[in-house]
Amino acid sequence: MKKICIFNIKGGVGKTTTAVNLAAGLARKGKKVLLLDMDSQGSVSSCLSAEESVKDMYHLIANGAQLKECLTHMGENLDCVTANEALNNVDLELADRANRDFILSNKLENLKGYDFVIMDCPPHFGTLTRNALFFSDEVHIPVSTDTLGYTGLKKTEELLKDLNEQLRDQELIVGRIIPTLYDRRLRVAKSIMKKLQNEYYEILADPIRSNTDLRDAPQKKRSIYTYARTSTGAKDYMKLVGEVLRGAEEKSSPNDFIEMESAATGMMHSK
């Protein structure tokens, strides 16, 4: 089972779009997927149509509920734990709880029956994000191909580097940098893409092109594959799905790893 955290400290870079369409694409490839919404905005359930469970991520993290009580079936091979604004209270409610950053890890320690767990994180470093990071096998970082997106990537890289220096028994691994909102007609997009290729080429995914269908699909509560299966958005995300599947196979050995290095030298992918 591969556990992937979708995270960037900057908002508006396509985290939820990436989480939803990566999860839906893996499910279409016959993989059993659990999608966890860690964001109080509840954007995952806004993107996909399904009846929500009575209990959700708040109950799982802060209220003692078990996973089976919180599951929402989103489609063939795809389950989800949804979220809402109740998550805004989690940091305060769990402030005095021991091991509060490892509640998700402890709760899902014996999780079985899924090939992938995909976690959509909020754009800030609170209790929910730390729970997702510490539960994950690797972090995938969507980065919008503009100046602020690149700056957000660098801040996220530094945050993960600092965390790795603090951790003893765990290493936060960056699996992929995912360029999003890419429009090759724009000079800034091409400039940022060149920087990403130079600095992160070994873990850089193919870009997700800017596409109106990706913006419109959530309004219909559909993944890009059911909303516009021939669109560039569908093609780009299905290509990402293929990269993730190949990466999971290549990293099946326990000796495979990706090391975080300093921002000056970028990231190194060791196999």
The proportion of residues forming helix, as a percent range, comes to 40-55%
Tally of individual helices? 12
If you consult CATH, what is the topology? Rossmann fold
Radius of gyration: 17 Å
Overall domain count? 1
Shape: globular
CATH superfamily: P-loop containing nucleotide triphosphate hydrolases
Q: Quickly give the structural class.
A: alpha/beta
Report the average pLDDT across residues.
88
Distance between the termini: 19 Å
As residue ranges, the low-confidence spans are 253-271
CATH top level label: Alpha Beta
How would you portray this structure in words?
The chain is an alpha/beta fold and 271 residues long. It has a single domain, classed as Rossmann fold (3-Layer(aba) Sandwich), CATH 3.40.50. 40% of the residues lie in helices and 17% in strands. It contains twelve helices and nine strands. The strands form two sheets. It has a seven-stranded mixed β-sheet, sandwiched between helices. A two-stranded antiparallel sheet has the order 8-9. α1 (15-28) crosses α12 (232-250). The protein is globular and about 50 Å long. It starts with a strand and ends with a strand.
